[in-house]
Task: inverse folding
């Protein structure tokens, strides 16, 4: 039986003061790093039309079958695709052709439910990154089969792979994410220190949690406050008055006082945030009906529109659309999901243009993993490397980055007869976004411990090249 050690109040206070001292010192160090990030980023701020930048992470939860999202369309490559995918192949004539600025001679297209994303691509507002996945170090088929390279923990596991995409640390399990560690560095660039720069539309998540920063969770309708506080009606008025009395009182008991201060700070932040977003008029762009992802992005847009009122120059958002684990009925279910993403991205891009911040906001996708190339009968199972999208005015759009693999089952990248080994590390993908956001290259190893395995931070070049850093 575990024995509980008694801790006196005096010892608790002493330990708390010691912890406070460490936290204050650490916070000062973080602020020094943030000043360096701010100084490095001045030129890009001017070029992009203001001192604001936002990253919007779109998690496709469950594992997107992304080789049915970005699809080979030319005759030779399509025949290879159709042979491997068998009953899950999209008809060649239904694929929406795209025309990348850079081509290796192969022809590609998008799923037929993505006409708006096709147009976003052709207009230069959207790009794709092919065969990206979690990697600890560059990995060949021979090295993996012989067990001489480190592979991500819990490969093919939903929980592990979602976590690693959010943490940027596929070699270990940790409770902080790369979005949180970025926020630790640049939070002091915001004048508002009462509300976290990391705002989540889907509750608590690892991606946005840092050593100092935690996500501020909101709903599609805005901030989540004390039920009935400030509401109309006699009961709510009495409740509000009673709560105000408790929140304004000083308690001799330090535990009560700490709890009261926490509740008061949260309540004040809720009122500040909700007042700001409530002051934003409805957008001219119409919100798609029955589209939860679009509804999440609508609140992201309202928050961005409130940036000056709230005092934000840097923000990281997290939105999520689940239901991608298509072990069965893939063609129908995947089509429905891609339709929702297509409509939501079109809406969000139009609103960002309406707000004149399209160059300042970059939206990008992550997913647990891609799916097996072969059919399990009517669906697909967990795999590895896949395709992602990036959207925004700062994206060097109308291109496919990375190396789109051959989909033949006997290829050098194919293991387990249907799983593609990534050729671009998730670290490189994330590092490019971090650099655009203002993180100095010298700080990348702090955020992504394995980045040196894929990118020389002293090279002066970009990890991949899909972001316009000017």
Result:
């Amino acid at each position: 039986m575990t024995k509980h050690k008694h801790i006196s109040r005096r010892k608790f206070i002493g330990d708390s003061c010691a912890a406070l001292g460490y936290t204050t010192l650490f916070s000062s160090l973080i602020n020094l790093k943030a000043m360096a990030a701010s100084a490095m980023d001045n030129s890009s701020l001017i070029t992009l039309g203001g001192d604001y930048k936002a990253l919007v992470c779109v998690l496709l939860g469950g594992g997107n079958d992304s080789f049915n999202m970005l699809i080979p369309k030319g005759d030779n490559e399509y025949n290879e695709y159709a042979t491997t995918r068998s009953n899950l192949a999209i008809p060649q004539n239904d694929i929406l052709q795209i025309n990348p600025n850079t081509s290796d001679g192969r022809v590609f297209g998008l799923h037929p439910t993505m006409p708006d994303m096709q147009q976003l691509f052709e207009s230069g507002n959207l790009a794709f990154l092919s065969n990206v996945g979690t990697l600890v170090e560059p990995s060949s088929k021979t090295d993996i089969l012989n067990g001489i390279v480190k592979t991500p923990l819990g490969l093919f596991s939903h929980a592990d792979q979602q976590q690693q995409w959010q943490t940027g640390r596929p070699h270990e399990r940790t409770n902080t994410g790369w979005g949180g560690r970025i926020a630790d560095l640049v939070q002091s660039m915001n004048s508002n220190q009462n509300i976290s720069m990391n705002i989540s539309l889907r509750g608590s998540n690892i991606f946005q949690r840092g050593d100092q920063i935690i996500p501020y969770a909101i709903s599609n309708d805005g901030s989540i406050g004390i039920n009935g506080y400030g509401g109309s009606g006699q009961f709510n008025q009495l409740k509000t008055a009673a709560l105000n009395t408790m929140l304004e009182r000083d308690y001799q008991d330090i535990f009560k006082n700490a709890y009261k201060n926490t509740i008061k700070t949260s309540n004040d932040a809720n009122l500040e945030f909700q007042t700001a977003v409530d002051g934003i008029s409805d957008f001219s762009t119409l919100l798609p009906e029955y589209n939860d992802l679009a509804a999440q992005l609508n609140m992201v847009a309202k928050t961005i529109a409130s940036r000056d009122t709230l005092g934000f120059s840097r923000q990281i958002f997290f939105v999520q659309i689940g239901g991608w684990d298509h072990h069965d009925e893939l063609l129908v279910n995947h089509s429905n999901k891609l339709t929702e993403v297509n409509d939501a991205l079109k809406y969000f891009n139009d609103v960002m243009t309406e707000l004149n911040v399209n160059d300042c906001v970059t939206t990008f996708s992550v997913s647990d993993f891609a799916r097996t190339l072969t059919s399990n009968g009517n669906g697909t199972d967990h795999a590895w490397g896949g395709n992602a999208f990036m959207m925004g005015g700062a994206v060097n759009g109308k291109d496919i980055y990375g190396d789109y693999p051959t989909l033949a089952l006997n290829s050098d990248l194919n293991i387990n007869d249907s799983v593609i080994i990534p050729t671009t590390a998730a670290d490189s993908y994330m590092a490019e976004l971090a650099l655009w956001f203002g993180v100095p290259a010298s700080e990348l190893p702090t955020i992504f411990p394995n980045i040196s395995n894929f990118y020389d931070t002293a090279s002066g070049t970009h990890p991949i090249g899909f972001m316009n850093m000017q």
